Amino acid sequence: MTGCCDRGLIEQWIAVCLICLGAVSSAGAKEAGGSEYLAEVEEVVTRYVPANNGAGPLWCYGSTVIARLGEDVYVSTIETGQDVPLLCNTRWQLWRRSVGKWRIEQSEDKFRQREPCPIAVFEKGPLYLSVNPSVEPPGVKYGRCEPAVLEFDSAAPERAWKKHSPVWSDDSYFTDHSYRGFAADGVNGELLLLNIHAQTGDQFVSYRDRRGKWRRRGKIRFPIRSCYPQVALRAGAGHVMAIGDIVEPVEQWRKLKFETLKRQWDYVFRRLFYTWTPDIGESDFAAPIEIDTVEETGGHIQNLDLYVDVSGAAHLLYLRRPHQYGFIRDEYFPGQAMTVQLEYVILKQGKVVSRRTLADDSGKMKPAFGRFHVGRDGGLHVIAAGVGEDGEGRSFGNYAGRIVAGAGRMKFIRVGLRHPLRNFFTNTVRGGSAPSDTVDIFGIAGDNPNLRYARIRIVSESD
């Protein structure tokens, strides 16, 4: 089922109505660095039927599923097969929004995927999907998969795709839990793909250079198994941020959580890592460094986004909670506050040069999620979700602001979306989309199982 989509004049009329209703605060925008954030479009793209296989439509949150090429927007979604046995019971769909209307351009023939399939583009095309189909009979769980990259003609995405087979180090072993990362250098026409070894937890690396040749680039061995990687490729340099993903290592906490939550699943995300290579064509990734940890206090870290600027500096965005559960805090850390911070770290040449908290729950917006966005002028913005003032009290909403060098907390302003998105992807430059004053967002709002699209326009003072 698809949503009804508005055409250009109707979209402009909606944007004007939202502004007139107070959806965008120009005063707040000036405080946030001289930019306004105009909500122009909100649409339902499709609806999602739960696959019950452990991977939802936003499961691959380290890699994007939405990209912009010119006036068109592309989205990769997953469709659940009726009565198809677990775990690989979904198939990819490629959607395009053109002339204000969404439609499916292609779908996979069989239901052979467990996870969403990340998307990447080059700035003048083509378009790529990272896929991970099972090669086992239907119903085999944790079975072998064969990662591939599909190439589509962005000018005619309905045409037959080309299949590319990335090359890997000889001891690779891939299954339906790929935890893969996918990135494009949209300017130079290169791709970077990571896929996890199902037994060792090492992230294997495959790189496609500008001549179209796939090259094995070894593997990344993190101190502990690390997943959901944000991957970036720019001018030959590769960057990876990933979060530790292991079973609760503290026996007392594991027992208390089971007694309280009554569930067997108990993975924790407490240690954040980063690695890079200055020249992926010639050198492997460096030994990963630990960016942050909340191990000792039973906390939670969520890696959100990664951006590499023109100087080669890596910008990291993540959420930090020193305590994940109040009942563990009460038992082992009484009196300590349950807090959440939106953290921003800059690295150069593999070393941390700056740390900054952009927002926390003591400010006007309690952060819950966020992504970077690069404007047409190269400015770095944060599109966030959280709880803040809306004129009638505190409620959940989407916020935006421009990062100003040397400042402290960011001055986020509320964006006037009628259906605020809780978790979402954007048209990131990591996926090959060009820097733009148009922010394309795909994700889930309060009317789940709808999968929604929103478009926000950045208007700077110079405009």
Task: Provide a quick synopsis of the model.
The protein is mainly beta and 463 residues long.
Largest sheet: 4 strands, antiparallel
| Derived structural class | mainly beta
Q: Roughly what is the average pLDDT, rounded to an integer?
A: 93
Trace the largest sheet across and list its strands: 1-30-29-28
Oligomeric nature of the chains: single chain
As a whole number of angstroms, the C-alpha radius of gyration is: 21 Å
Shape: globular
Note the gap between the termini: 39 Å
Helix residue percentage: under 10%
Low-pLDDT stretches: 1-32
Strand content: 35-45%
Number of helices: 4
Let me know the number of strands. Answer: 30
Description:
- By secondary structure, the protein is mainly β.
- The protein has helices spanning 8-20, 26-31, 251-261, 326-332, and strands at residues 35-47, 66-69, 72-80, 90-98, 101-107, 119-121, 127-131, 148-152, 162-164, 181-185, 190-196, 203-208, 214-220, 226-234, 237-244, 246-247, 267-268, 271-277, 289-293, 300-308, 314-321, 341-348, 351-360, 365-374, 380-389, 394-402, 413-415, 423-426, 438-444, 450-460.
- A hairpin with a 5-residue loop joins strand 29 and strand 30 (450-460).
- The chain is globular.
- Mean pLDDT is 93; it is low at 1-32.
